TrEMBL record:
Classification via SUPFAM superfamilies: MetI-like
Transmembrane annotation, as ranges: 21-40, 81-101, 113-131, 164-186, 207-233, 265-287
Superkingdom, natural source: Bacteria
Biological process according to GO: transmembrane transport
Gene source species: Amorphus orientalis
Biological classification of the source: Bacteria, Pseudomonadati, Pseudomonadota, Alphaproteobacteria, Hyphomicrobiales
Protein name per UniProt: Spermidine/putrescine transport system permease protein
Length: 295
């Protein structure tokens, strides 16, 4: 009987090992095919040279030197970082408040409001960005409303083709990416935690600061990371809602791979963007872990 039980345990252990092996193999295959191989190609291209209408294999640092020596590209990267940071911070606050409302105060409307939160994700990204071009236009919804109070259309020029319009549209698009994981984290917190904190004399705000918020930091951080990466690399929204002074680095990279036909320089810009995102995300993860108390 004991031998049969040991055989079942070994067989179960063998099955789990195979499952783990298959999952790990799938993850490695995905990483190699869709991350390492494409980025490896981009990294190799960044050291190649361009000759008029063709590119040739080489190993030069001219493309990276060009980025450093021309302030325009560093300015565009800084502008992209600034807009992505603003979008991430505003989305974090709005997403967290929205998730808290859904989890704790929505009551019987919780499921309905959660579905309404998901509905915008079912539509095209381009459509969601283009809608704000109509809303923020001089004769759009906001302009028409303020016009009732004597505000002239010329006074609303800052709403469109500016940083304001880009941030508003990206926040609208990316808030669900923060609200959904935070909502899931709040739903998993046992009510007994809050009750125990109250029994010990802690007020609701103290319970939130020392119990609820630290337990949701990993989800909040995951959502903010996604929002920052997508905002930093977005090119549709700046192309539709940004002006000539509000271009982002993704627009420059697309231009290099398109009309300029300078793939090596575009690849160098892409590698710089990738390194910048990795540094910012790593710093945010470190801060998040410190806030969460090492969880």
């Amino acid at each position: 009987m004991a031998e049969a039980r040991a055989a079942r345990i070994d067989l179960r252990g063998l099955t789990m090992s195979r499952t783990t092996l298959v999952c790990a193999g799938a993850a490695l295959l995905y990483t190699a095919a869709f991350i390492l191989y494409p980025y490896g190609h981009v990294g190799v291209f960044s050291f190649w040279a361009k000759d008029l209408y063709s590119i040739r294999p080489d190993f030069i640092l001219d493309n990276y030197q060009r980025i450093v020596e021309r302030p325009l590209y560093l300015t565009v990267i800084g502008n992209s970082l600034r807009i992505a940071t603003m979008v991430t911070l505003v989305s974090a606050v709005m997403g967290y408040v929205l998730a808290m409302f859904l989890a704790r105060y929505a009551g019987r409307w919780k499921n309905t409001l959660f579905i309404l939160l998901l509905v915008p994700l079912w539509t095209s990204f381009l459509l969601r960005a283009y809608v704000w071009k109509i809303i923020l236009g001089r004769n759009g919804l906001i302009g028409g409303f303020l016009g009732q109070f004597g505000v002239e259309p010329d006074q609303l020029g800052f709403l469109l083709y500016s940083d304001v319009s880009i941030v508003i549209a990206l926040v609208y698009i990316f808030v669900p990416f923060v609200a959904i994981p935070v909502f899931a984290a709040l739903e998993k917190i046992p009510p007994a935690y809050g009750e125990a904190s109250a029994d010990l004399g802690a007020r609701p705000i103290r319970t939130f600061v020392h119990v609820t918020f630290p337990l949701t930091v990993p989800s909040l951080l995951a959502g903010c990371t996604i929002v920052f990466c997508l905002s930093f690399g977005d090119f549709i929204t700046p192309a539709l809602l940004g002006g000539s002074d509000n271009i982002m680095i993704a627009n420059v990279i697309i231009g290099q791979f398109g009309a300029a036909f300078d793939w090596p320089f575009g690849s160098a810009l892409a590698i710089v963007v990738l390194a910048t995102v990795l540094v910012v995300v790593s710093a945010a993860a470190w801060v998040g872990n410190r806030v969460a108390g090492g969880r």
